[in-house]
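## tool: complex_structure
## caller: assistant
## args:
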Amino acid sequence: MPVIGVIGGGQLARMMIPAAVALGIEIRVLAEASDSSARLAATAVGDYRDARTVLDFANGCDAITFDHEHVPQEVLRALVAAGAAVRPGPDALLYAQDKLLMRERLGALGVPMPDWARVESRGDLAAFLADHGGRAVVKTPRGGYDGKGVRVVGAADGADDWLADGPVLVEELVSFRRELAQLAARRPSGEVRLWPLVETVQRGGVCAEVIAPAPHAGDAAERAAAEIATTVANGLGVTGVLAVELFHASDGRVLVNELAMRPHNSGHFSIDGSITSQFEQHLRAVLDWPLGDTSPLADWSVMINVFGALPSERIASALGHQPSAKVHAYGKGPRAGRKAGHVTAIGDDLDDVAYRARAAAAHFDV
Amino acid sequence: MPVIGVIGGGQLARMMIPAAVALGIEIRVLAEASDSSARLAATAVGDYRDARTVLDFANGCDAITFDHEHVPQEVLRALVAAGAAVRPGPDALLYAQDKLLMRERLGALGVPMPDWARVESRGDLAAFLADHGGRAVVKTPRGGYDGKGVRVVGAADGADDWLADGPVLVEELVSFRRELAQLAARRPSGEVRLWPLVETVQRGGVCAEVIAPAPHAGDAAERAAAEIATTVANGLGVTGVLAVELFHASDGRVLVNELAMRPHNSGHFSIDGSITSQFEQHLRAVLDWPLGDTSPLADWSVMINVFGALPSERIASALGHQPSAKVHAYGKGPRAGRKAGHVTAIGDDLDDVAYRARAAAAHFDV
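## result:
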């Protein structure tokens, strides 16, 4: 039986468990704490920044993959040096860890992006603002997620605090019609499969809702997104799931916003809405097994994130009112604003599907 | 977070894990051995016939359910006496444990069955054979499964070995067109939901293949099966999943063959083919949560059992040739003839679906 080790015990590791159970794969998790979301499969609790801890954990695993992209390069390279199959590998993960490197590399691959620049000083930022209508998005190169490490600035001193720690990325504030995401998977021997393009709706910089497929993107955007994801997956040598977050700009361009090299919130719909879920596909890709059919199980899927908590009695109430809704609880203790679960509905009529998903999710509103 | 304890660590317990993970339910398994199929969720290894072992295991569980029906009545009743929510409870399980009691009880409920009799001697068997064309099916009241404890006899001495241990059940050898199964679930507060009627194909007394829905059963048989399952679920006070194995007799009658009060092989298709799988429904029922929509995800599902073993390289080869097939491996060591996994395909054209399922399953043929 193949053994996959997952570094990080969050909900993404948790949601790999059902796929591993189905395929007869043994899954082991290196968790941050004993009460992690993926505790059922945790075989170790420790610090993923410590090479010794990670090497010990990896011993006996046929492949190593990730719940998050924060494992330091030196730890990743120690794993590779020790003979571990690290998927995705450090050379690919680098571009998911550092947004400045990512922009440089995507530029070299000719992938369409917002205008961007490396900013080391107020002067750099002032120059970029002057060229882009006086407002721009500044991002820390590392460590940002769910809207953290991202801000809109309108003045040259708007990134002073971050600049004290080193260069930042500045990007054109894209005027967009909608945000999209293209999910893909690539296995080491090269096979790439894409899911249909989806629309993501953010609130407060955090993904709130995903509609699959994207209802109004159009053929040209679908083709552009598929080409971008394929180029990125192959160009960066990604193994496992790749999520490309995209802007569908007001002028019709499809531009890369962010990359994630792991199962991603924009693909949670696939658990209930696709022949092959992103979690199953990720495990297959990580083992270099053939990838699965990504066809939808229904015309439409709508996924709504739940924040804070999913108390049992609310789960029962949501299930009682919406018997066709699929509720996913991440087994986390309550904490305001934290992703604690999601709800998916699927069906042939988008209005009805969205209604059922939102009605079920509303049971978890405060 | 609710806690469900499952007694028995076989593949049915294993397949409850993904449903528990999704719904944020903690699942604990009392396994027979450390290498059980459900070892990922095993919190104890011990003998389910030992009341102390089972009571210790049940401590801290919100509900207790089962991978199999072999837990002795005295252990079940000790659990109830200790305040455990045992689902299904001993009064219901009795009828899944003892086929003579089951026949008596179903008779009282007016459920259609093959002719049957309690046989205590050669003389009893001779009389039944004389009334039924000289051939009949003899079953041990307890402990039979997958064709074990069942034999066709044509002479009065055909059950001598079993009669030495006590009375046996004799049944009319039903001339049937096909075998069917009606899967249902019932929660303690009374809600009952049914899946579509399925056809089961047996080879050597063991389920080989399931087609959902049953292609040629017809409306009358569907109505009869639904009424039977509802009557049995309510009449016996079943909680959790109930599988009613049925003969569709040559004369059109729908007759109860066997009962199982747990997720059942005839419902494995529902993991990939239904909005709510039998495993999710079972956990919901056991917690007395509202039951889920049992609608199909496609017009047809075909499930094929795999016996013996599912080596990784065969899994990869099956997935490579049939990217839409869903392969389920039970994490068992190889053993000839033992159910080791199953394969499901779904879609709109039965011939195509059956082809894809069988083609994928063929990768595991010797």
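## assistant note: Chain B touches chain A at residues 1-2, 14-15, 17-18, 21-24, 26-27, 40-41, 271, 275-276, 284, 287, 289-293, 295, 297-298, 310, 312, 315-316, 319-320, 323-324, 326-331, 341, 346 (CB under 8 Å). Chain B has a mean pLDDT of 96. Handing back to user.
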